[in-house]
Target: GNAT family N-acetyltransferase
Amino acid sequence: MKIEARNTLDNMTIIQINELEAIVQTHDGTYHDIYLDNRFNFDQRMPAFLFAWVENYLIGFLSIYADNIEEAELSVIVHPTYRQQGIATALIEQAKEIIKSFRIADISYISERRFIEKTNYLHRTYQIDWHETEYLMEAKEMVEQEYPEATIQVRKAVMTDARSIASFQAKAFESSFQEAMTYAEGSIGEDDHEIFVFLNQEGDIVGSSSVNTTEEYYYLFGLAVDPNYQGQGFGTQGIYQMMKQLNAEDERPFRLSVEKENAHAKHLYQKNGFRVISEVVYLNE
Model:
């Protein structure tokens, strides 16, 4: 077995990762897809992708996501045939060395309840806060809604929107303005990644949401509404109008994640046809 670390991915390697992930998900009954991009890592020089190879066959993969120096999130998968051979441990140990060299403070691991309940060792090895989990939700198709006269407009963001987006996203996600600006500028106009903005009747940007487009589905994330306009239906209508526009371009299922404790948001998404398909769990040492 050979372990390799890279900070970029080419198309052929992405195909190999996707093939391994499909095998793992079918075997484990899981749904969460690893995010295969380092554009939002605070230092793109960091080798964020680790591979375990047997000759030219990918048997293990680990991804490091760290958009700030406070914490790195690790996702790791191993081919079912090659488990219990120390492959995940070897990948994690090398990832820890990389994380240490970039002076990142903490590490968490992304998993799913369904997988954790099948494996006794994870309960013994890691700390799990079952109140801090997320529901992964999916809508196979849109549910038509009847809203009163539209109070918002929705369109794809352009680069001149970046400062407005960063201004309220920094408040909504409790991040720095610079972090929010980096995220906005890195998302606008990308082929597989877009930000949609929500505008009120005066034409002011009052909210936004992002979408990552995969071959199989649209993944919605980063919903934020300016605190001055919350509670007025901008999020609900914005998501609905955004889904309609995406569906008009190419019909495919939608997915998103919502914090388990956020019953209001879960209800909002259920109104738009989403149902829970998995529970994403964060483990800490």
User: Anything to note?
Assistant: The chain has two domains: 2-125, 138-278. The CA atoms of residues 124 and 285 lie 10 Å apart. The two ends are 26 Å apart (CA to CA).
